[in-house]
Design goal:
Blueprint lengths: L1 E3 L2 E10 L1 H10 L1 E6 H6 L15 E5 L2 E5 L4 E5 L2 E5 L7 E9 L21 E5 L2 H14 L3 E6 L1 E3 L6 E2 L4 E3 L7 E7 L6 E4 L7 E5 H7 L6
Parallel strand pairs: 11-13
Antiparallel strand pairs: 1-2, 2-8, 2-9, 3-8, 3-15, 4-7, 4-12, 5-6, 8-14, 9-16, 10-14
Length: about 220
């Protein structure tokens, strides 16, 4: 169990392909893709997110517009403007968090079946203090600054204002994401090696875990 600010994390779960989960379990290979990668990824919204890395969001009500060069005037029902840099630097590593943040009422705990889209297998990480210690040490050894925390979800059709790297549209809420962000002047992937996780984790088939994992209240 891990206390993060005012919330308690019971477990981390990493969903993915069998070979990637096995590599993480046996060798502790942590792969952090770039924010730029997720912005451009087209996979029907499983991992890809066009809102990833935006700095501001503007939702405008119905109004008029004019294209002077074409001598054209028209109306629009609504308009959304997303502000961001051409390239957003840095890398992220995401985990599914079984926590009081995502599930304020343990009796309502249930893993959404859409998480099976990430892959056939998953790694259940049980010793969270040791996991944090290992991954933080690996990042520090490379000399990078980093942050971690829960992702907060917002209504992309109504939000106006600044958006941080720890916010995502509500359509991704079922992912219950806890994110590690590594600050780098790069858009290339980053790989960490934190050593075997056999002593603190278990491999499961995604479908079986989703169906069978339950929380009990003492």
């Amino acid at each position: 169990m891990k206390e993060t600010s005012e919330h308690t994390i019971k477990l981390f779960i990493k969903f993915g392909k069998s070979e990637h989960i096995k590599e993480l379990y046996e060798n502790g290979t942590v792969f952090l893709n770039s924010i730029q990668y997720f912005r451009k990824l087209e996979d029907n919204g499983v991992r890809g997110d066009i809102y990833e890395g935006i700095s501001k969001l503007h939702n405008l009500p119905a109004g008029d517009f004019e294209i002077k060069s074409l001598n054209y005037k028209g109306k629009y029902i609504s308009m959304q403007i997303r502000e961001s840099y051409d390239e957003v630097l840095g890398n992220i590593f995401s985990l599914y968090a079984v926590s009081s943040h995502g599930f304020p009422n343990p009796l309502e705990f249930k893993i959404d079946e859409r998480n099976a889209d990430f892959g056939s297998h998953c790694l259940m990480i049980k010793n969270l203090p040791l996991f944090f210690e290992r991954i933080e040490k690996a990042i520090k050894d490379l000399g990078h600054k980093f942050r971690h925390g829960f992702v907060k979800y917002y209504d992309a059709d109504k939000t106006n204002g600044e958006v941080t790297l720890f916010q995502k549209p509500m359509k991704y809420e079922h992912q219950k994401e806890f994110r590690f962000y590594v600050q780098r002047k790069s858009t290339k992937p980053l790989t960490l090696n934190i050593g075997s996780l056999k002593d603190i984790a278990e491999i499961h088939e995604t479908g079986e875990l989703i169906k069978g994992l339950e929380l009990t209240v003492k």
